[in-house]
Design brief:
The protein contains eight helices and seven strands; from the N terminus they run H-H-H-E-H-E-H-E-H-E-H-E-H-E-E. It has a seven-stranded mixed beta sheet with strand order 3-2-1-4-5-7-6, sandwiched between helices. Helix 3 packs parallel to helix 4. The longest helix has 15 residues. The protein is globular. The protein starts with a helix and ends with a strand.
Length: about 220
Amino acid sequence: MDNKLFALVDHYISERVAPEDEILKAVNTSIEKHGIPQISVSASQGKLLQVLAKLTKATKILELGTLAGYSTIWLARALPLGGKLITIEFSEKHARVAQENINKAKLQDLVDIRIGKALDILPQIENNKEGPFDLIFIDADKPPYLEYFDWAIKLARPGTLIIADNVIREGQVLDPDSTDDKVIGVHKLNESLRNHPKVFSTIIQTVGAKEHDGMVLALVE
């Protein structure tokens, strides 16, 4: 595959429909400054998330995996006044940087960062009756992806859109003997969609600046 061509086309798309403003550029700078992994969504993917949030008329969004807040900002900007986005981040360092970026974007009234293990925080969200959410974006550690997806369904309503990123892993999901725990994790999720009784779903391949991957799009029924 011509990764250089994919990156150039991604740049072409982003320039036209997903240009980064100074806030988003500053998030990327903060990632480099603090030595955070460069694993945020691309600008065109961020715009896709924003379009999907608007399509679902989301007023309550749940995100698993904040990192430095790049995708968080794209999603939060789709919310109306009075909307809410809860985002869960395991790393205190990443959450601190994300909070700084969210403050700079003046989105602190819309975004609530929860720090800790998602599988510990999700039951708290359920117990506190903070759902249901209109859109749920899963972009956290891959081994428990199926568990995250199951929790997303619990915190959803009919019509909720669940998005799970990085589910193709540059085609590594085709290897049934893979020992990579990330590949195994997303493969479990993908396999669960074959005859899932609660969602109407598809998987789209994505190529571009973030190379070859894919996203699950699942509509809760």
